[in-house]
Write a structure and sequence with these properties.
The protein has 369 residues and is mainly beta. It contains two helices and 26 strands.
């Protein structure tokens, strides 16, 4: 019983000694008493980052920099009282009083790449350190990231497309989209806000140039152009489904094809393909909006040339065909710009005869009515 009572003061004394020992150890351990709050500067200005250490003793204190998006890539700025960078823009001021120290990092003539996280750290031992971080934001104009967007995008009609544009800058840039000539966007309206413009169920009318603009109110906006190509199967239009011409005169038959990629175009007569040479001359004439006009010139029309002609067009997305008819008439087709006269008659006499015939018929009809 006496031993049990005698142990009570001893345990109390041991507890007090341990508490005092832990308190002294905590009181003598280093700590970061203060670090500067977030700093925002313009390009060309300067900034001061202050890190105050309590109980610094002989511990090593340093500054290092990382980017918010790449925190694992650290760059040492200073170690102890020595700068680790060789740029004159960086300066380190060190003061110490009563076991408290200030490590003040100055950055002059700030550039955009100075933005990032600046970490003040105390190396406590080989396995642990104390850290506090201050962020430096640098106001600078927006810049679209080249590796984040492409200048050309090709999709098939009916597919979906995502036009992506990303930018850096501070403040964070706002991104808007528009079409060339401020045409209406497939999603509606003349502009769209957001880094990704999503187009569902593409139509051929959606193809063209789209502009991505990044703006944050600092400097000039940055703009890039993106061309969207929409692949589609051929569509054929025949301007003159029926064409008339007299014997021995030239005539053109034509079809207008719209397709992307560019189509292969062929003409057929009586189930056989027509080629350049002899009575036929074939020409393909390109135009904007993926339009090709295919023209077959028939020289000195003969009776075997009358009948149906088929224009066929194909690309990797499909094929189409259209039919037109060439028939005979007694009077030359004077509305045809490529009219050719035969050697047996002169232009003047043939034209006069044709015009006289038309005038005579017109007068006769007027008299009857």
């Amino acid at each position: 019983m006496w031993l049990r009572r005698a142990n009570l003061p001893l345990l109390t004394l041991l507890s007090a000694v341990l508490t005092l020992s832990n308190g002294q150890q905590t009181a003598t351990s280093p700590s970061i008493a203060f670090i500067s709050p977030e700093q925002i500067r313009d390009i060309g200005e300067q900034v001061t980052l202050n890190c105050s250490i309590a109980n610094v003793k002989n511990y090593i204190v340093g500054w290092q920099k990382s980017n918010r998006d790449q925190t694992k890539q650290n760059n040492i700025i200073s170690l102890g009282v020595q700068l680790a960078v060789a740029e004159d823009r960086f300066r380190l001021n060190f003061t110490k009083e009563n076991n408290a120290a200030n490590y003040v990092l100055e950055i002059h003539d700030i550039v955009a790449t100075d933005a990032g996280l600046y970490e003040c750290q105390i190396q406590v031992n080989s396995t642990s350190k104390l850290t506090k971080t201050v962020e430096l934001q640098v106001r600078h104009p927006p810049m679209l990231l080249e590796n984040q967007h492409t200048n050309m995008l090709t999709k098939a009609e009916g597919e979906d497309a995502q036009l992506v544009c990303r930018a850096e800058g501070y403040p964070r840039p706002a991104i808007t989209w528009r079409r060339e000539y401020n045409a209406i966007l497939p999603v509606g309206g003349q502009t769209f806000a957001g880094h990704e413009l999503r187009l569902n169920g593409l139509r051929r009318e959606d193809r063209g140039t789209y502009y991505c603009t990044a703006d944050n109110g600092v400097g000039r906006p940055d703009t890039k152009a993106l061309t969207l190509e929409v692949e589609f199967a051929p569509v054929i239009r025949v301007p003159r489904p029926k064409v008339a011409q007299a014997l021995d005169y030239d005539i053109d038959v034509e079809c207008v094809v719209q397709a992307f990629p560019a189509p292969a175009i062929a003409w057929y007569r009586g189930g056989k393909q027509i080629h350049n040479g002899g009575a036929y001359s074939i020409a393909q004439i390109g135009a904007p909006d993926d339009v090709t006009t295919s023209v077959v010139k028939i020289h000195s029309v003969a009776s075997e040339h009358f009948g149906d002609y088929v224009c066929k067009a194909s690309n990797k997305l499909g094929q189409a065909e259209a039919r037109l008819n060439l028939f005979e008439q007694d009077v030359p087709n004077i509305n045809y710009s490529g009219l050719k006269w035969t050697s047996g008659s002169t232009p003047t006499s043939s034209v006069m005869l044709g015009q006289l015939f038309i005038v005579t018929i017109t007068l006769l009809l007027a008299t009857l009515l």
